[in-house]
Structure formats: C-alpha cells, structure tokens
Amino acid sequence: MTAESTIQAAVHKINLTTLEHYVDNRVVLTALYAHLAADSTLVGDGWNAHIAGPIDVAFSADGATAYLVNNNSNDVVVVPTNITLAKPSGANPLTEIGVGNSPIGIVASPTSNKLFVANSLSRNVSIINATTNVEEARLAITFPTPEPLPGPV
After folding, report:
1. Which end of the chain is more exposed for a tag (fewer CB within 10 A), N or C?
2. What is the pairing mode between strands 75-80 and 134-140?
3. Given CA atoms 14, 15, 16, 21 in this order, what sign does their dihedral have?
4. Phi/psi class of residue 83: alpha, beta or left (left: φ > 0; alpha: ψ in -120 to 50)?
C-alpha cells in the first residue's frame, strides 16, 4: 500500500468447499469503473455506491439478496447476490437505505420481510421493510456495558 492507494468496499466470491478465491468474480461496490483484477482491463461502469465502512451482512431467506451494513455512511446497501462486476447499461443504482448512527450489525428475519439493524451511537434499532427497502421505525435500546475488571490486573 502506498500514499496513492485507495481503499474501496468490495465483495469477493469464495468457494467455501474448496476455499478457492475467484479473483475476477468480485464487485467493487464503490468503484466508478470496473476493472479485471488480473490485468486492470476496463470492463465497464462500476456500481459507484456511496457507502463507507462495511461492517456486517445479512441475506434474504431465499439467498437472492444481501444486505450490507455500512458503519461510516450510516446505511444498508441492497445487493443482489447475482450482481456482476460491471454495472449493466441502464441498470438502476444499488439501493441505499439510511439508518441510525454507526450501525454495527444486521439480522434478516427468516419468517418475515423485516431487517433489524443495531445502531450503536444513536442507541436504537432500525426496522427495515425488505420488500419496500424503507426504514419503518427506530426502537430505542440500551446497549449493555462491560463489567469492570476486579482490582489491579
């Protein structure tokens, strides 16, 4: 890494049986242009999602959609699991759903169309309708505090 390096949010495909990493089957969600990893060949427009700090992911019950939580941009980006490296011509941008401050985790309900996002700095949970991709509510919560260490350690 050098001073000219950039850090971007990327999703890589890995075969969990063989642990093979498919280098050119990855998506750089924040890229303006899509390039092959092997030789930097330009393959088209990138997805150019305006996200930062991916921290957690959840999947729909059917596995067709991934929901990526972004800690620094305070949102959830909706990613079809069959997404391509380059954004097809005329394709809509990825859906970005605003949530509370500093989201740290997400869970998808296996029995309903709801997503639940824990927001640490705003101390609440965002409830998202996964059918409409809209935040429906925020519930106030109290995050647990760690136990103090006993005496000098």
Report:
1. C
2. unpaired
3. negative
4. beta
- CA-CA distance, 6 to 3, in Å (whole number)? 8
Long-range pairs, 54-62, Cβ under 8 A, ≥24? 54/9, 54/29, 55/103, 55/104, 55/105, 56/103, 56/104, 56/105, 56/106, 57/106, 58/106, 58/107, 58/108, 58/115, 59/108, 60/108, 60/130, 61/108, 61/110, 61/111
What angle is formed at CA 22 by the lines to CA 18 and CA 24, rounded to 5 degrees? Answer: 170
Residue for token pair 């800690």:
71
DSSP string computed for 73-117: TTEEEEEETT--SSPPTTPPPPEEEE-SSSEEEEEE-SSSSEEEE
Largest CA distance in the chain: 63
